[in-house]
Specification:
- The chain is α/β, with parallel strands linked by helices.
- Helices cover 31% and strands 10% of the residues.
- It is built from eight helices and eight strands, in the order H-E-H-E-H-H-E-H-E-H-E-E-H-E-H-E.
- Strands 1, 2, 3, 4, 5, 6, 7 and 8 form an eight-stranded parallel beta sheet that branches.
- The structure holds zinc ion (ZN).
- Zinc ion binds at residues 30, 33, 136-137, 186, 190, 229.
């Protein structure tokens, strides 16, 4: 049923409106990580203890744990993207985020909690004719090719990394930082769905991954964002992210590159759907990313030719 978990009234109020509006589309946007790489690290290397139950299925406080957040049609509680200028191919995300499709009055947004906003960011820090490229599920053997291309065009990007993979490829993490890119937490095991896990498990997935990424990057490494696997944000995991010093990071253009739809499809998705201030979702890990690399080789000059400069997501 569409009854949210009673776990936290405040958290629910803060997060469910947005999650309800966006979760179905976002879940479709991020593919499963590569089997055999995700979850292969030993959690014992972290000082954040893993919960005893890996499935979280015993969580007693979530009687409706099997349900994705409700989807009140036309909810205007959230503004999913300020950067989108054309309709998204995913119909359940509003293509007119500033308009209220129901015509009802706009509800007052809940105040952000102490520590930072839990709302998901869908736009660049600077707005205007900027774009934030984001790469998920790495680092992997493809990350170096992505970095080579970014360097060739003077582009900066944000890498949403899986903790154990950062541990396995610290040189890639250090190169990302050295070349001016930024990092984002994409959990330890890439659990999908994430919102049905126990609270302790979600804390572990988020906090331990941040610690692994930070350790791989070295002293002073910052991880300003958290992106839930598959975009499965919930009020709970957004709060956990904020409590760990990270802003939930969404996207406004989903290339679906993880599904290997063909280079032309990936390129066309960006060309069709990107607007000023947009955040583009691609992947540098999770499987064969040769299509992503080839698409990036076309997209970078296209973006530059169309006046885009490269920015980071808002924090
Ligand atoms: Zn992912």
């Amino acid at each position: 049923m569409r009854i949210p978990s009673p776990r936290s009234g405040l958290a629910r109020a803060l997060g469910y409106g947005l999650a309800a509006l966006l979760a179905p589309a976002l879940i479709a946007g991020c593919g499963p990580a590569e089997p055999g790489t995700v979850g292969s690290a030993a959690p014992g290397t972290s000082t954040v203890p893993p919960p005893s139950s890996p499935s979280g299925s015993s969580a007693p406080s979530a009687p409706s744990s099997g349900s994705t957040a409700p989807t009140p049609a036309g909810s205007s509680a959230a503004s999913p993207s300020t950067g989108r200028t054309s309709p998204t191919p995913t119909p359940r995300v509003s293509s007119t985020p500033t308009a209220d499709p129901t015509g009802s009055s706009t509800p007052a947004p809940p105040p952000p909690p102490a520590g930072g906003p839990t709302s998901i960011v869908y736009h660049t820090a600077s707005g205007g004719r900027t774009v934030a490229l984001t790469f998920d599920d790495g680092p992997s053997q493809y990350t170096g090719q992505v970095l080579d291309l970014l360097a060739q065009y003077g582009a900066h990007a944000t890498f949403c990394q899986i903790g154990p993979q950062a541990t396995a490829r610290p040189a890639a993490v250090k190169r990302i930082l050295a070349e001016g890119h930024r990092l984002c937490d994409h959990t330890v095991h890439h659990p999908q769905p994430m919102h049905t896990l126990s609270h302790d498990r979600q804390v572990y997935e988020i906090a331990a991954a941040k610690e692994m990424i930070t350790k791989a990057g070295g002293t002073g490494t910052e991880v300003p964002w958290f992106r839930a696997p598959g975009g499965d944000f919930s009020a709970e995991n957004k709060l956990i992210a904020v409590q760990n010093g990270m802003r939930p990071l969404g996207w406004s253009v989903d290339t679906r590159d993880w599904s290997r739809p063909g280079v032309a499809s990936i390129v066309a998705d960006v060309q069709r759907n990107l607007g000023p201030g947009g955040v583009v979702l691609m992947h540098d890990g999770g499987g064969d990313r040769s299509q992503t690399v080839a698409a990036l080789r076309q997209l970078l000059p296209w973006l530059t030719a169309h006046g885009y400069t490269f920015d980071f997501p808002a924090v």
